[in-house]
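Our preliminary data section would be incomplete without showing what the modeling component actually yields. Below, a chain of 326 amino acids is followed by its predicted structure, encoded as tokens that our downstream tools consume directly.
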Amino acid sequence: MFAADGHPVCARQAPPWECEWDAGDDVVSHNIRAVAVLADGSRLVDSVRTEAAGFAPAVAVDVVQVAATVTDGDGRLVKGLGRGDFKIFEDERSQEVTHFIGAEAERELVVAVDMSGSMTAAMPTCREAVKRLLATVRPVDHATLLAFNDSVFTVARRDATPEARLRAVDRLRAWGSTAFHDVVLRGLELLESHRGRRALILFSDGEDMLSHATASDVQARVEVSATPVYVIAQGKGMRDERLKQVLDRIAGVSGGRAFYTDRIDELEGVFAEIGEDIASQYLLAYAPGELARDGSWRTIRVDVSGRSKDYGVRARQGYRAQPRER
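Predicted structure:
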């Protein structure tokens, strides 16, 4: 049996032990896995990861999307706002809000769960916390469930039933190392193919150990993405200031949040907070005027002070205006 990136490709009962698979037009990294079931019932398993051609960030910035979360002076989420309540500034120049989607619209989510060996003791509570988060997914929403260790696996596709997602979580077992950077890129890749409100939720207990992608690759991808990223860090991520800076940067630039907890029993509250955060998210869009595609960083500021001076907004901090592909 052969699988690619966690998806079955083919099964062969007799030689030749091979099959064809369309890897797509882009030269990106893939995980190829082969499982042989022998006559005596034993199994042989091997996998190989192909090399990518390198990451080249690109984004069409004719329209810039911004996911925004609004809180009041007491930190409570603010719902029920309309397009006229928001003002957007790019490099402190006012922009017209051309598109607006309120908090009731459907959401596209990717939830990625670390199942590396260092998660062994935490997996029972982690599985329960993830199931509670998935229970907040509404019928109109879509949620893809990824798991990662040495590789990134899709364990429940976006069209899976709620029951199937919960069964997939129950099957998660800890083993292997951690490919954190790879799962960030994979999650953003899945989400960027969908329009509308979306979010990437990452739960990891440690520093990247095995990815083909680098921290710079992740940073570059986040800078051209309109997807908020939520990170829950444990283990070394709680203590290593360099790693915390990376996680804070990923979440902050994207308009998401990074959470740090060294108590596994606190995860349920963290996931509940993220679920409520995403449920209260507004999606805005604008068409930048006088846009020079020179690769420069453009700052974004979202303001709702016209409704209340106590309101605060969390949104992506900006984007990088990449030249058009030729």
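The mean pLDDT is 83. The chain has three domains: 2-49, 64-103+282-320, 107-279. Preliminary results of this kind motivate Aim 1 of the renewal.
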